[in-house]
Design brief:
The protein has two helices and eight strands; from the N terminus they run H-E-E-E-E-E-H-E-E-E. The protein has 145 residues and is an alpha+beta fold. The two termini are 14 Å apart.
Length: 145
C-alpha cells in the first residue's frame, strides 16, 4: 500500500513515519510537520537481514489500526502496536500453530521473544532495528526492494 502525496496520512502512516525516525515531529493522527513525505516511505515490508538463503525470512509489516504482522520463522503472526515518539511495544502477539524443522522453530522462538522485549526502534543506514529497554539491538530488518 502506497500513500500518495495527496492523501492525508492516518494513524498507520504516522506509525510508519515514527518508525523511520520522525515521530517527535508527528502528532498522532495528524500530518507530519517536518516536511517528510510519508507517502514516499516504501517498501513497507521488512525482512530479516540475517536470514539464511535456503529459508523464508522473518518479516515485519505495519498496517492501519496500530497492527503489525508477518512471518516469524515457522508461522505467521499478528500483533497490536503501542507507540509514542520515544517507545514501541508489540502487544497480544498471536501466531498460527504449525510445527516446523528445529532451526525454524528456534528462529521463531527467538523472534517472538525479541518482539516481547522491544521497547523502541530506529532506522540506521537503511536498516530497521528493534531495540530493547537498554537500546540493545534485538532484530534487524532490511526493506523488500
Amino acid at each position: 500500500m502506497k500513500i500518495s502525496n495527496k492523501t492525508k496520512p492516518g494513524i498507520w502512516s504516522v506509525g510508519v513515519a515514527w518508525m523511520l525516525g520522525v515521530a517527535g515531529c508527528v502528532p498522532l493522527g495528524g500530518v507530519a510537520e517536518t516536511g517528510v513525505d510519508v507517502g514516499a516511505v516504501t517498501p513497507l515490508t521488512w525482512v530479516d537481514v540475517a536470514a539464511p538463503q535456503d529459508r523464508k525470512p522473518v518479516s515485519l509489516s505495519f498496517q492501519e489500526g496500530r497492527r503489525a504482522s508477518g512471518f516469524a520463522g515457522c508461522n505467521g503472526y499478528a500483533s497490536q502496536l503501542d507507540f509514542t515518539a520515544q517507545a514501541l511495544t508489540f502487544k497480544s502477539t498471536a501466531t498460527t500453530r504449525m510445527l516446523c524443522e528445529p532451526e525454524a522453530m528456534d528462529t521463531e522462538q527467538r523472534y517472538l521473544k525479541a518482539l516481547d522485549n522491544t521497547r523502541s526502534a530506529r532506522l540506521h543506514l537503511g536498516v530497521l532495528e528493534l531495540l530493547d529497554a537498554q537500546r540493545k539491538v534485538l532484530w534487524r530488518f532490511k526493506p523488500i526492494t
